[in-house]
Amino acid sequence: MAIIEMMNISKEFKDGLSSRKILALRNIDFKIEKGEVFGFLGPNGAGKSTTIKILLNLVYPTSGKACIMGKDVFDRSARAVVGYLPENPFYYDYLTAEEILSFGAIASGMDKTDLPGRIKTLLSRLNLSTASKRPLRGYSKGMLQRVGLALALVHDPQVVILDEPMSGLDPIGRKMVCDLILDLKAQGKTVFFSSHILTDIERLCDRVGIIVNGTLQLVDDLKHLLGKGTTLEEVFLREVGRQGGDER
Questions:
Q1: Are residues 56 and 125 in the same domain?
Q2: Do 9 and 51 touch, CB atoms closer than 8 A?
Q3: Which pLDDT tens digit goes with each residue over 71-119?
Q4: Is residue 141 part of a domain?
Q5: How many domains is the chain partitioned into structurally?
Q6: Residue 97 to residues 69, 84, 102, 233, 237, Cα–Cα distance (Å)
């Protein structure tokens, strides 16, 4: 059974007040297996975030079906096993890191007796322990990004979906997050993430998908793609060029 499955997903949006419709996704179809790290690439406006929002049932597809661990994403129990980091997370900035993680854990149904140890472990792993009791308004962008990752992982999900997880991170923060993703893979967790940082995709991913103008141009094993001496950048630019993938 595939852990994540998108089955012929299309999505249309209305163009403002006009009657014109924009096709944001066109027949997106792929599967992700247990323990796999899958990298999702595409130019700005290609449809990466829309795809992720459909997986999380935040946006409804116009047609097609999406499943997580064999359950339709409309099913609340499917989303209970997912941890999600959005591209631009928003927090109440008067809360501390400890408070936001506690809120997230309780909202996910986690046993309160397990909270202190889990929160302490995550804050230490992401180098946030010394700032854990400070209001988030005093955090840098990189620190807020790490808080968001901790929040996505606090309930120990089986599926982790990350939208631009390296955004705002310095090289030390990027290495920290890369190592954490590799640890999730070692634990048998499934990781789906979008990124513009191709070196991170090359280091972390088993397979990649490239989306351009709402069309999935390619899904392939990363070792197979790079096996003939080509680079991921060359593959990406080739696939974007096939559709003339300007930003929308």
A1: no
A2: yes
A3: 999 998 888 899 999 988 888 889 999 999 999 998 888 888 888 899 9
A4: yes
A5: 2
A6: 30, 17, 9, 37, 39
pTM score, whole prediction: 0.91
Same-domain check for residues 47 and 110: no
56 SS3 class: coil
Same structural domain for residues 102 and 211? no
Mean pLDDT, to the nearest integer, of 136-155? 92
**DSSP letter, residue 29:** E
Which residues sit opposite 85 in a β-bridge?
Answer: 162
| Residue 6 lies in domain | 1-81+158-170+186-248
Count the residues in the chain: 248
Give the single-character DSSP code of 238: H
Confidence of residue 244 (pLDDT cuts 50, 70, 90): low
pLDDT at 247: 42
Residue corresponding to tokens 């986690």: 110
If one counts every other C-beta atom within 10 angstroms of the C-beta of residue 99, the result is: 17
Note whether 38 and 131 are same-domain residues.
no
DSSP symbol at 112: G
Residue whose token pair is 């595409």:
42
